[in-house]
Design a protein that fits this description.
Elements lengths: L1 E3 L7 H11 L8 E4 L7 E6 L5 E6 L12 H11 L9 E5 L9 E4 L10 H7 L2 H18 L18 H20 L4 H12 L8 E3 L8 E3 L5 E4 L6 E3 L1 H12 L22 H12 L6 H24 L10 H22 L1
Helix pairs in contact: 4-8, 5-9, 6-9, 6-10, 7-9, 9-10
């Protein structure tokens, strides 16, 4: 965290006046400290004169893509999930008046804990026993999320109740096609994988709240390995819970594996459970049939390849600075995702 006398993106005086009028038990002026962690949204810890703490969060400055960085969606989701077993920060207040500071923003509780981005984070924050507990807590939290009835908590209108994977396939295949010129890279395996996924689309069961980016990097862990809160709900919607599970398992990786997509990933530290242990636990907790999980892991490898391909294209176009970026490694990760996706469908056929 870096303490700031100014906070880019925020009119401090206007925001503090708004919080004073709309959030009980917080009394400006605040000490503003930027929260780091790789998120593009502008997120600051606030501490008032009595030591009471909160977080304020708004989108990045500049022109945004439609539906990107949806603070209203995040606030709605954490407000609705607050009374459920899913651990989330407490939602305090949402400001939809862009005149206050140039964008919508919201205020929530500050949750102690630490997200795990890499092996170093895991080793520094959790001992080996706590890492074992973290794996169980991680999958228990995902199972709890997928056990929530959206309509019962006011999230029945969060998204469409059907066609989640088919829409995702259409979106990300379109992204690959749009990016292949700038990336100067196409791959027949991507198109073969897309054809397989479209032809073998599973029937979706009842729609559940899906996080969309459920990983250790978006969970705050206590030192004992328990999950203090799940963060970053801006792309949450209604959809197929097995797509969420497939993503989580892909990102988890094999502890100690030299073949992991991210060799310095958080689960490479000793102590974390093997992915199949998490899958068995999820099946036990939810009662879901996971015999078709291979489809969803292949789907998520496809999606990851398309996302990374788009990022690679934007770097090549000069839309993002390549300083410190290993472009060859980025392209290798695209290829590795495709190889894993194709391997998954070969296993299924």
């Amino acid at each position: 965290m870096t303490q700031n006398e100014s906070a880019p993106g925020y009119n401090i005086a206007a925001v503090e006046a708004w919080i004073a009028a709309n959030v009980a038990d917080l009394a400006p002026p605040f000490a503003w400290t930027q929260l780091e962690g790789g998120h593009s949204n502008l997120t600051y810890a606030l501490v008032d004169q009595d030591g009471r703490r909160a977080v304020v969060r708004r989108p990045p400055e500049g022109e945004l893509l439609p539906k990107a960085h949806d603070m209203g969606r995040e606030f709605k989701v954490i407000s609705a999930l607050g009374p459920t077993p899913v651990p989330v920060p407490t939602a305090y207040a949402y400001c939809e008046d862009p005149d206050i500071t140039g964008a919508h923003f919201y205020v929530m509780s500050l949750v102690d804990g630490r997200a795990l981005y890499n092996n170093e984070d895991s080793v520094a924050h959790l001992d080996e026993g706590a890492r074992a507990e973290a794996g169980m807590a991680f999958i228990d939290t995902l199972a709890a999320l997928h056990s929530v009835d959206p309509s019962q908590v006011g999230l029945g209108d969060l998204g469409r109740h059907d066609g989640y994977v088919s829409r995702q396939l259409r979106t990300w295949y379109g992204s690959w096609d749009a990016s292949k010129g700038a990336a100067d890279y196409d791959d027949r395996r991507l198109h073969e994988l897309h054809r397989y996924l479209v032809a073998n689309l599973p029937e979706q069961g009842p729609a559940k709240v899906v996080h969309g980016d459920f990983g250790l990097h978006n969970c705050m862990f206590n030192p004992d390995g328990s999950v203090a809160a799940v963060l970053d709900w801006e792309i949450a919607t209604l959809g197929d819970p097995l797509a969420d599970l497939g993503y989580a398992i892909n990102a988890w990786g094999e502890p100690g594996s030299a073949q992991a997509l991210t060799p310095d990933g958080a689960t490479q530290a000793p102590g974390f459970a093997q992915p199949e242990v998490l899958v068995d636990r999820y099946a036990h907790l939810t009662g879901r049939d996971l015999s078709g999980l291979g489809y969803y892991t292949a789907f998520n490898h496809f999606k990851t390849a398309c996302i990374l391909h788009g990022v690679y294209a934007r770097y090549r176009l000069g839309q993002k600075s390549t300083e410190g970026v290993d472009m060859d490694l980025l392209l290798e990760r695209v290829v590795a995702s495709l190889e894993r996706g194709c391997s998954g469908i070969e296993t299924n056929t």
